[in-house]
Amino acid sequence: MAYAEKRGKAWRVRYERPDGTYGSESGFPTKTAALKHGWKQETKVDEGKFIDPKAGRMTMGAWAKKWLGTIEVDELSEDTYRSRLNARILPRWEQVALSDIKTSDYKIWRKELRDGYSENYANEIVMVFRLILSDAVTEGLIGVNPVPVQGRRRGKYEPQDEEDDYVYPSPLQAFLLAENARVIRGLVGETMILTKAFTGMRLAELIALRREFCWIGPDRDPGDQHIRVEWQGHYRKGGFMLRPPKYHSRRTLILPPALADQLRKLLDSHDKEYVFPSAWGKPIRTDDQFYGRFWHPIVEGHDELPQIRGRKFRPEIPAVEGLEGMVPHGARHAQRVWLEEDDVREAAIDERMGHKVRRATGKGVATYRHVTPAMRKRIASTQQRRWERAAAELQKIISQKSPI
């Protein structure tokens, strides 16, 4: 039974907790206010809704460390959560007690994130923050998650631009990107861009592609040459790591004959294990240097670089018009668009992209949808036609620029 005690000028209440011991809270201006709070806490105990106020004094930093040890996700997801925590969440909230995190403070922080970073990155950080606090509620550390799920809200209505503004290349633009990549990384760079555009492979899958998973060569039927997506690669502190591809979407990709020829030429040019090795023969690191020294120049162009000690001469690289702001994933979008334009069956497209098929498209739709060899060979033939048209257009552009 709750009771109140006078402590100096304020009152303290003591109330029975679920385990039979007594908890206490101080600072009430009157005896009545203290007792009402104690009775309220004991009611929560009876209803199974009691949250010990002392539990909420755990800091975000302490809870985050414990939380990381409890989650059961794959290594890549855990790395992502840890990165978001260390980079953006803990610098702001590490020393704040869980019970002191207010919704208004969170909204101010969220606005700062959105002002300073891309929308997708900001949303990823908020998602991890919400998940951590949701698990704190489940653990009984706080009663309510201060990070609300986004829904209807008051405020000024801002209409959304419904136009699809995702940047992806046409086949000709893919060839122009490959030409720029050849200037920077030779045959490796050129072939990597063309392979990404004409297979739709994820970037992590490309860097993990090994020669043992390439079934190409003059001894094979030109219309029956394949590569196998078996792994995706990532660098961690321990070095280069191979993991199953996203959604465990291991798959075999049929190649247009021209791309198979390009890959065979590349494999004949080196003896490394990985199809697309770095300049030092190791798997490519897709870090800031990759984007700064390779990706951005092939998309946005680069001035001529004179030869200096430790660096070869590099001619001027022209920007590819219409691809401003494009990210590597844009080439993956392109593959799906090209296949849809060529009326390839949706099931065959999903298989090629390594997409997880959802059954919500209609009762039985996913169950009775299958991919046949004829569908896959249609992909090879449609991609071959696109390759040939784009290559012819590229040669026309090059001949027009050549001096007479």
What would your notes on this structure say?
The structure is a single chain. The protein is mainly alpha-helical and 404 residues long. The protein folds into three domains: 3-50, no CATH class; 57-138, DNA polymerase, domain 1 (Orthogonal Bundle); 171-357 and 370-399, Intergrase catalytic core (hpI Integrase, Chain A, Orthogonal Bundle), CATH 1.10.443.10. Helix content is 47%, strand content 10%. The chain has twelve helices and eight strands. The protein has helices at 31-47, 60-68, 75-93, 103-116, 119-138, 171-199, 203-207, 257-269, 288-300, 329-341, 346-353, 373-401, and strands spanning 3-7, 10-16, 22-28, 214-215, 226-229, 232-236, 239-243, 251-254. The strands form three sheets. A three-stranded antiparallel sheet has the order 1-2-3, covered by helices on one side. It has a three-stranded antiparallel sheet with strand order 4-5-8. A two-stranded antiparallel ribbon has the order 6-7. Strand 1 and strand 2 (10-16) form a beta hairpin. It is elongated. The N and C termini lie far apart (100 Å).
